[in-house]
Design goal:
Elements: E1 4-6, E2 12-19, E3 24-29, H1 42-46, E4 51-56, H2 74-86, E5 91-96, H3 100-109, E6 114-120, H4 139-150, H5 152-168, H6 171-176, H7 183-189, H8 192-205, H9 211-220, E7 235-240, H10 248-257, E8 261-266, H11 273-285
Parallel strand pairs: 3-4, 3-5, 5-6, 6-7, 7-8
Antiparallel strand pairs: 1-2, 2-4
Helix pairs in contact: 2-3, 4-5
């Protein structure tokens, strides 16, 4: 079983596979912060026995080597290296939250290899024309992103302190974002299976450092390195209308920018509603034969 790969530029990426090794391949792009184990709950994997799930830790998370100064577009190169190592000619991609722009990067920059892409609760690019980027966003996120843009060193120190707290008690991460959690979000994260997955995810992601978290945030706040309008593959855009981490305006901007977007907007849920949407998303992304 493959547990990691070396990229073309010599970095190590930790990899995990589960599901049917002969099934339809889908590469998972985890959230921010996150790791390979925090995208699809075990019961959803079990309910999709025809799917081959392939997940990896983005640079700087867990045991994956850091890639300072990386852009969102760089995920396409890492996923291409991963697919090459596994002998995959074509595959689908699924990204949730901070992983969603990285999934869009794969669709934009690897059109010959990506069959379909799903981007759940995605942010829009920071230079999105006509979008008031912070409108509707939780105060905690606005404060963090503003600090990242104005004082990167102070932002790095803040994340390092939070990562140390998460290593002691992963639930602390949910405490720091509580102002953005809707009632629907609280219901979802309180479910034992989801809560356990998220806490394991946060602990593993930040086990060695906060660098992955830092570099993710800086990449999301910088030019992505591609234009979503260049995507030619079918893309499912899923969003919760009450989302306060990735406000619905971001979804609406992407919907009007991505040419072949298939929109799904749930009026009754927020950011973590994307987890409950995964079964339907996977049915579209990797239809059973």
């Amino acid at each position: 079983m493959l547990d990691g790969i070396q990229t073309r530029d010599g970095r190590w990426l930790t990899v995990e596979e589960y599901g049917d090794r002969d099934g339809t391949p889908v590469v998972l792009l985890h959230g921010t912060p996150g790791c390979r184990s925090g995208v699809v709950p075990a019961d959803v994997v079990k309910a999709h026995p025809w799917v081959r799930f392939i997940a990896y830790d983005r640079p700087g998370y867990a045991d994956s080597d850091r890639h300072p100064g990386r852009r969102v577009a760089d995920a396409a190169r890492d996923v291409a290296d991963l697919a090459d190592a596994l002998g995959l000619e074509r595959f689908s991609v699924l990204g949730r939250s901070g992983g969603a722009p990285h999934a869009l990067a794969c669709a934009a920059l690897m059109p010959a290899r990506v069959r379909r892409a799903a981007a759940l609760v995605s942010l829009a690019p920071p230079d999105a024309e006509g979008l008031s980027w912070f409108d509707g966003m939780a105060a905690s996120n606005v404060e963090d992103y503003t600090l990242a843009l104005t004082d990167t060193l102070a932002f790095a120190e803040r994340l390092a302190s939070r990562a140390a707290a998460v290593r002691r008690d992963p639930a602390q991460l949910l405490v720091t974002i509580r102002d953005g959690l809707t009632d629907a979000d609280r219901r979802i994260v309180s479910q034992p299976a989801v809560g356990d997955m998220l806490l394991r995810n946060y602990r593993e992601a930040l086990r060695t450092s906060a660098y992955g978290w830092l570099d993710d945030a800086l990449a999301l706040l910088s030019h992505w390195g591609f234009d979503p309008a260049d995507i030619t593959r079918p893309v499912l855009l899923w969003h919760g209308a009450q989302d306060r981490f990735s406000p619905v305006g971001h979804f609406e901007w992407l919907l009007h920018r991505v040419p072949r977007a298939r929109p799904v907007l749930d009026p009754d849920t927020g950011h973590f509603g994307a987890i409950e949407a995964l079964p339907a998303v996977l049915d579209w992304l990797c239809p059973a034969s």
